Amino acid sequence: MSKKTYQQSTEEIMLQVGSQFNGLSEKEVSKRLEENGLNQLKEKPKKSSFQLFIETFKDAMVIILLIVAVIQLLMGAHVESIVIFAVLLLNSFVSVIQTKKAEGSLDALKSLSAPDANVFREGKEKVVLAKELVVGDVVLLEAGDYIPADGRLLEVGSLKVDEGMLTGESVPVEKNLASINKTVPIGDQNNMVFSGTIVTYGRGRFIVTATGNDTEIGQVADLLEGTVEQKTPLQRGLDSFSKKLSLAILALSLVILGVQIFRILVHGGSGDMTADLLNAFMFAVAVAVAAIPEALQSIVTIVLSIGTKNMAKKQAIIRQLPAVETLGATSVVCTDKTGTLTQNKMTVMAYYLPNDKEEEVTDPNKWTSDFKQLMTISLLANDAAITETGEKIGDPTEIAFLDYSEKLTQPYREIRELYPRLQELPFDSDRKLMSTLHYMSEEHLLLTKGGPDIVLERSNRILVDGKVELLTEDMRMKIQEQNEAFSNRALRVLAFAYRPLENRSLVLEDEQELIFVGLMAMIDPPREEVKQAVSDARDAGIKTVMITGDHKTTAVAIAKEIGISTEGDLAFTGVELDALSEEELKENLERISVYARVSPENKIRIVRAWQEKGHVSAMTGDGVNDAPALKQADIGIAMGTGTDVAKDASAMILTDDNFASIISAVKVGRNVFDNIKKAIAYLFAGNLGAIIAILFALLMGWDNPFTALQLLFINLVNDSLPAIALGMEKAEPTIMKRAPRNPNEGIFSGNTLTSVTYRGLLIGLAVIIAQYLGMAQSPELGVAMAFSTLIWSRTLQTLPARSNSQTALKAGLFSNKMVMIAIVVCSSLYGVTLIPGIRQIFSIPTNFSLNEIIISVALAISATVLMEVTKLGIKAVKRINQKTQVNPINE
Prior knowledge:
It is a single chain. The protein is α/β, with parallel strands linked by helices. The chain is built from 32 helices and 25 strands. Strands 8-25-24-23-9-20-22-21 form an eight-stranded mixed β-sheet, with helices on both faces. Strands 10, 13, 14, 15, 16, 17, 18 and 19 form an eight-stranded mixed β-sheet that branches. Strands 1, 2, 3, 4, 5, 6 and 7 form a seven-stranded antiparallel β-sheet that branches. α12 crosses α25. The radius of gyration is 36 Å and the shape is elongated. The model has no long low-confidence stretch (mean pLDDT 85).
């Protein structure tokens, strides 16, 4: 197996890329540019807006409506056909706009590319456009530079690079030149630099080993291009239902047409064959118009929009509307650690001084001399700063010492002003130390901080109770034990020491014979509210999984503290995950609560594994490395402080980067889905009532009880407001105590289908009675009464549609004021159809009077009351059954 770039020596790489320390010639650069292209990300061609527009007409229900509209047009019903075409076009335009908004992840990736690069070519330093870099170029780096390509380091000078956008780590990585013999993730490839990352400290020189799509960020781009966005459970449910409903409507319409034609042929009809066939077609078309809820797509969009506003109040900004509903079905949340579960702020958690009890004293005047020395070194051997505006500049670890001092009411500036820095030995990743020189207590002191093992090794004395003593082996053992104890708690530990100096010119050899002072331990602590949020997620049947670029020990410690990892749970690194077969991963998946040091490919694999098990997965992230998994997940959740790439690949953005906000948003998502089901049930119960009335009229040989225009008016205008109002119902009290719904369950799962069928039968029965009573005077009056009763029944049905388990009175008649407003508005809309001049358009004869209106309203109220009374009866039966089970009768 060939060595990877970070495993090779610099000589091997030079030979492989055909370059040298002084760089390439301009001739060679031109040749390579011509062969391999520019150093920029390439993308596949996207679908045009026209292609997306055409694809919206592939839906089965849309096809049925198109057929209906064409038939209407051929039959001369121009108004009806124009209305249907207008609705379909509106829905298509909305769909195309939504799709176009979701594009842009790769554009954001491109924006991360550095504009220029300092290179060595033919032994001379020059500035070139970063896109003109080629493999083999030698690039110079300084603090603040964006790294323009992937490469192997040739030179480092205290080089630190922020690779958080690729690895998720909040702390800059210290770079070195050492070869690595084993396989390690990106975060541990310390002899490499990667395109798009930023130099935060020091300087360096590297040879380019990959450009464009061959870089690590390029591979992320390829993953983004190859990742297919998942349809939401609601979209899958509606698509499936749409196909089934369309086939059923088509079959029913053909059967009706066949029956009608059979009657004409057998019984002769009215004698006018053309008129009879036209009437037969109109019956079939009326069934199609009555069955299809034309406004369904718009109503679902509006209800989802209402959900987005509610989520915005919970710090969750929705980029793609269906994500609102998807959250409600989420059963697994794969979350990043840094900034989401933790505060993204290194914090001093503990310290160690020989013979000193750890006790935070907020009065600096009461500090022991040893603690004062520890704090002084931590503030002076420190390059971080806090500006007047509160902005914190520098390494997160060093900032933690400043924050700790301010917390203990000792302004760090006072110490720095009292003891100004005279000289320094900057931090170096090889020696892992930083030292500064100050004039203190009438002598020059070298103050040193660094890795505990290094500082301890270079110390021969120790400060105890203000006195300097020899550092014994017993003391060394105690310090090492304390260091291990801190490390076992996943704390990052630094040691502090000092020594007097006679000379004022610092050299590296001065960092010997140090006086050991103590240790300080830090961690990025969990957010206070996260532990409760994880517990709430568990109560709601949602599994929380931590996926982080941090080290395994740290990740597991945080996971245990906040309740993500419990007894018996497993933790894997990215390398360990790669070693698992698909079967092994599937077998262990539900026991793995922590993944550490993961790659973008690892993240996608984890998300897919949960999806293959039938779970709806949410994935959080903020870096470029998270983008492919954010796109692959059922719902990608980006952090507000994250990269534009992550935001563009996600469906939702958390403005406060807080895991607790995800759980709050899940509650809103569940409520939105409940309300969408109520709206859909409301629409289909009304449509079913109309179909029942049409079929009954067909069987009895009556006139068609409705015109197509009447049905379109009810479906598009009258029913829309009540359906939207149902989308504003408040959440059930137990909404977060139930398990996530099965993403494969149908729209009419549970008792929804029973409720729709029952309400539809009652509405159909009321309409049939109304048509029968009207026909006693004339067929035209029968049609008018059928239309009037249908519109009133469907309007008043809004009240029982608010809940399947409780009546509108029990739920609070005015708890959802929009329902009452919708009923009032719909009543007014019905009045519009009775205005002279308009009533003729809706086929309402002049002899349709107040008496007929009262009969229609009475029939509608009767149907509504029966719907509510039935709920009470079902509830009473359930109570009796429960009592019988609790107190069985002894025979």
